[in-house]
Amino acid sequence: MYGVIVTAPGGPEVLQVAELPDPVAAPGQVVVRVRAVCVQPADIAARVGMIPGGPVPPPFLPGWDIAGEVDSVGAEVTEFQPGDRVVGMIPWYLTRGTPGGYAELVAADAGWLVRVPDGLDLASAATAPLNAVTAHQALAMLSLADASTVLVTGASGGVGGFAVQLAAQRGHRVLAGATHDDEEWVAALGAAEVIARSTDLATVGPVGAVLDAIPLGDAALPAVADDGIVVTTRPTPPTDRKVRQQLQLIHLDRDVLAELVAAMGAGTLRTRVATTIPLREAAEAHRLVEAGGLRGKVVLTA
């Protein structure tokens, strides 16, 4: 099989196509023939070596989110069979590229995977694991009371877009920060009020809870009421205000993933794919993501 490996810390050019041994399913594992891999900022961070725990020595495979078909199953696996369509999250924070998703075939623990509903395309499914589960877990960390008001920054992005929908569906009033010309999409996700990203958040709220999905860090704090809470998706500097600051770091939750993917299949949870690019052209995909300005996720296809 082939994969796209990081050959050294650096720019997109360090992503190189390489021939790799075909994986074999160990007991409890499934070999997935990968059809779609979502390109995440975490992949770029791994490529340049700016990740928790320090750089991963190259060569290694990036990639958290995979969708495809089961190619083979190992002993003790009874819930999947060859041909099943699946999506899952490689817990890259544990595997650190062994395995990673940028490959034709991936040996994945069966517990990382869930079925893809009929009618949900694999590229869309691949946008769900890291972003949608992060949004779900971040909202849980906010511990919102019934009918709360919550501010979501980065609502045009993957985590923020899912968070707006999940919060609104739970009956919360969502104030959502959107990039320019993306207000219509964010409003359609269920936001009660869409706020331009350029807005000084000192003029918003104060609200009891902020999910800072960009994150803005200090710039988001003026919107938080005293004794309120802000949850961020990356570390931000501490504040001397009476505000709780929590960092949401993704952890694998198969039940939540199955629930979210089912909602996507039913059409009650929306996502956006900006473009699909062949896996062999992963370097170009990284350039696009780093350039910004996209409306949706970049997905690698094989």
TrEMBL record:
UniProt cross-references to InterPro entries, sorted A to Z: ADH-like_N (IPR013154), ER (IPR020843), GroES-like_sf (IPR011032), NAD(P)-bd_dom_sf (IPR036291)
Residue ranges of every copy of the Enoyl reductase (ER) domain listed in the record: 10-300
Pfam families, alphabetized: ADH_N, ADH_zinc_N_2
Gene Ontology MF terms: NADPH binding; oxidoreductase activity, acting on NAD(P)H
Keywords, sorted A to Z: NADP, Oxidoreductase
Matching SMART domains: PKS_ER (SM00829)
Listed name of the protein: NADPH:quinone reductase
